[in-house]
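Sorry, can you check?
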Amino acid sequence: MARVSAERLANAAGTLIPVDRPTSVTGWQEALSGERYLADRGLATAIHLAISLDKPLLLEGEAGVGKTEVAKVLASLLGRELIRLQCYEGIDASRRSTSGTTRNS
């Protein structure tokens, strides 16, 4: 899998560590598969474009289709913290909930 060092981030001790990311759609499919998430070419393409263009990625779908799981896997692959905000029709600001997941979770 072709990978290129795209950024550096600090670990808990403040030491900079490199983060490599795939450079192709196939590379993203392989990386996701390595984390036990099977992504079709369409999802891998959307991920590749969002990451390459440094743009957000909106995942929509019914409950249980794997939106949160792909976000967890991407956070892990990118060495980032995942902060999840639950949003659904009828929820107001006083009832919304968030959960944080570190890259090692």
